[in-house]
Amino acid sequence: MTKEKNEMKDFTSAELGALAHLYRGEVYRSTTWRTRLDNTTNWAVVTTGIAFSITFSGQNASPLPLVLVGLLVIVFLVFEARRYRYFNVWRARARHIETELYAPMLLGKDYERHGDWHEILAKDYIHPRHHISMIRAIGRRLRRSYAWLLTIQAIAYYGKLIIHPTPIGTIDEIFDRAAIGPITGEFVIFMHIAFHASWIVVALATLYHDKISRLDRRYQGVGMG
Q1: At the N or C end, where does the chain have fewer CB atoms within 10 A?
Q2: How many CB atoms lie within 10 A of CB 45?
Q3: Around 151, how many Cα atoms within 13 Å sit in the side-chain half-sphere?
Q4: CA-based torsion, 172, 174, 179, 183: positive or negative
């Protein structure tokens, strides 16, 4: 990793003013996209709540809405991951300016900083791109928000099978209640477990990838993402 204790790149007062306005613009854009992320999460929470209301409205109510809402939550997750990739661009740029411009200004010349920070930022404006892949974005939003929704959905689903219309006496009753038309309960339960297991794998795999990526940026030099 190449670092140097050097003086900050000389900017005129007009250039520093422009950078200040640029920083404000990036913060504003990241805040706007952050609000859009919250909206998507709210949609997922509301639809999950509606499914709970329908499923637990009566003892003989079908558990199928809880199965379908799990698929709908994943649709919202994909929407939010796509929005997160844009949010991450503005957030990374604002954070880059904070750590590489404002922090050295506040701490002085002894602060270890990267000499080419402005070139990295300029290239990101000249050749804009997403800083993380779609699957990594899905993993981040899954770990932050959607894992909790999917966990609650799974608990509610199996809780419904166990207690309605009457508490189960044998394990076979769960399979009977899980059946959907001609689809056997065993197959439905298997697919439900596989569904949740696959998202656990995605969450853990992307977490590992994020840790490796952070280490790479630390040892190879400053970067954004």
Answers
A1: N
A2: 16
A3: 8
A4: negative
R_g (Cα) of the chain, nearest Å:
24
Residue that has been written with the tokens 């796509």 in this structure: 82
Tens of pLDDT, residues 158-200: 999 999 888 988 888 999 999 998 999 999 999 999 999 999 9
pTM (predicted TM-score): 0.84
Q: Residue ranges per domain, the chain?
A: 13-220
Find the angle CA(45)-CA(32)-CA(85) to the nearest 5 degrees. 75
Residues in the chain: 225
The DSSP output letter for 56 is T
- Residue that the structure tokens 């932050």 belong to: 144
Name the token pair of 76: 């919202």
Contact 199, 154 (CB under 8 A): no
